Amino acid sequence: MLRRIEPLFYSKFPALSNIAIAALICIAAKDHVPLEYLFGWLLLMAGVSTYRIILNGQFSRAEIADVDVLMWERRMFLCAAVQGGIWSAVGLAVATFPMPIEVLGVVLMAVCGMLAGSTFTMTGSQKVFRAFVLPAGIGTTIGIAFMEGDAGLVLSLMAVVFLIVVLIWGWTISKATDERLMLAAEKEHLLVNLELAHREAELEKDLKQETFNKLGHELRTPLNSIIGFAEIIGTEAVGPIGNAKYREYGSLVAESGKHLSNLIDEMLNLARSESLQAAIDKEPVDIEEIMVFCRDLLAPLARRRGVELRVSRAEAPIPLISADRLKLRQVLINLINNAIHYTLQGGQVDVAVKRDADDFMEISVSDTGIGMAEADIPKALEPFNQLESGKTHNPSGKGIGLALSKKFVELHGGTLTIESEFGVGTKIRVFLPIGTGDQVAGRG
To answer: Sheet of 348-355: strands edge to edge?
Structure first.
């Protein structure tokens, strides 16, 4: 509401132009209209215009609330109505005092200019606009109609048409202004909502970060104990175990614990990053060695669920690749772990690696599990989004494994693809570029 009437008070120019044009009319008509009449009319115009300038200044300095809008609109309405009435006196002068056609042309052109100008300065309020236009236009038109001769009738008809055009034009501009203000208000409302949503997201991010930090601390405390005791067992620090297999298991538990500890650090680093973009620490990596590590780590889970876990070595020698060992391990752990959980008892999970024709290393994890519909594949790749069909088979899942694996693969410049058929199984392929140069040597 306030924005709608603000244009009425924007500038002093309309009021000053009223005085200037009125003075020019007086100069043009001074030889045909009594000077006292012209002086009195100009004095009234100057007084009302000065009041309008004062009103503009008061408006610009005041703190206007929505409840004050009607009061200010009424003040400008009265000012415009009086000013329009003063302009209507031009019609009285035209009808009373005969003027040459050139003087009459100047007078009528001045009135038409003021009426046209009001469509730009007063259409913020149709009441104010009409309070000025109607008295000025109708008064002048009537005065012209009372002129002697046929010219008065013709000019008055033209004045009526012009007045109608000005009113329609003013209404059109006012309507367009209202629509623009409505759109601006909607935009402002959307920006406010966006700001609130942004603040909520920041608070949620801070809460998640705090939760991750607390969780990391709670996990590290028992995990450090596990790693320490496992290393004692694996190195036989307090005496021989008596069975080499136990020593091997102890070393495997210690290695797995270290991997999990490093993974916790990675997760905390990722939580601090808004875009999940993290640095990768590349080194020469043997993919088959990582595959065997992941198989040994997840073999107990596969046995408990009655799933056969197989790792197939490539027929041709596989070169080392330049990759982040920890992240690549986690990719395979996530993919194999998902495959085991979503495969029914008696099924199998196959892990294989080969070098493709495009000089990329292809690692595949395929299962004979429950699968998923093609439309659900994009959903499965969204963080913290676990499909309904998978919650029964893996109720402890959090829906982050696939998304995290895809992100880690992309950090290496690779791609992760999924092929799946509901009720048949799933095959996930990871394509990684083969590193070259001094960092990575060929394996032979």
So the answer is: 308-312, 348-355, 360-367, 425-433, 415-421
Please count the other Cβ atoms lying within 10 Å of the Cβ belonging to residue 82: 19
The position carrying tokens 């595949």 is 364
Residues with Cβ within 8 Å of 44's Cβ and at least 6 positions away in sequence, in order, are 86
Beta-bridge partners for 432: 361
> Cα–Cα distance between 13 and 31 in angstroms, integer?
29
What distance in Å separates the CA atoms of residue 28 and residue 85, rounded to the nearest whole number?
A: 21
d(C-alpha 406, C-alpha 397), whole Å = 17
Q: Which parts of 88-222 are beta strand (E)?
A: none
Count Cβ atoms within 10 A of the Cβ of residue 247 and give its class: 0-12 exposed, 13-18 middle, 19 or more buried.
middle
On whether the CB atoms of residues 380 and 420 are closer than 8 A, the answer is no
Q: Under 8 Å CB-to-CB from 155, ≥6 apart: which residues?
A: 108, 144, 147
pLDDT tens digits along 191-238: 888 888 888 878 877 777 777 777 766 776 777 778 787 778 777 777
**What are φ and ψ of residue 235, in 5° steps?**
-95, 0
Report the half-sphere exposure of 58 (CA within 13 A, side-chain side).
11
Q: Say whether pLDDT at 85 is over 80.
A: yes
CA 291 to chain CA mean position, Å: 43
Q: Which amino acid is at 51?
A: Y
Strand partners, 365: 351, 428
Does the pTM exceed 0.70?
A: no
What distance in Å separates the CA atoms of residue 137 and residue 163, rounded to the nearest whole number? 6
Give me the half-sphere count of Cα atoms (radius 13 Å) on the Cβ side of residue 425: 14
